[in-house]
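User: If only I could read backbone structure tokens as easily as an amino acid sequence. Those tokens are not coordinates but codes from a learned vocabulary of shapes. Could you go through the record with me and say what the backbone is doing? Here is the record:
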Amino acid sequence: MKLNELIDSFEVFTTNEETIELTKLDGMVPFDSLTERQQVIINNLIRKSLVSKIRSEKGVMVAKNEL
């Protein structure tokens, strides 16, 4: 039996601030362009695997993971 068969819906808890930042995140955004508060919120979303941190030639970029 697969895990998907056991669990009908799997939701990750997000705070109101995290939800707002997640909806505002379109495409790849430079991590350094975010305010200090936004960086903390994005780091929380990275820990929850909702956002990915990508290292590129331009520096560290963040992008929303597909749900």
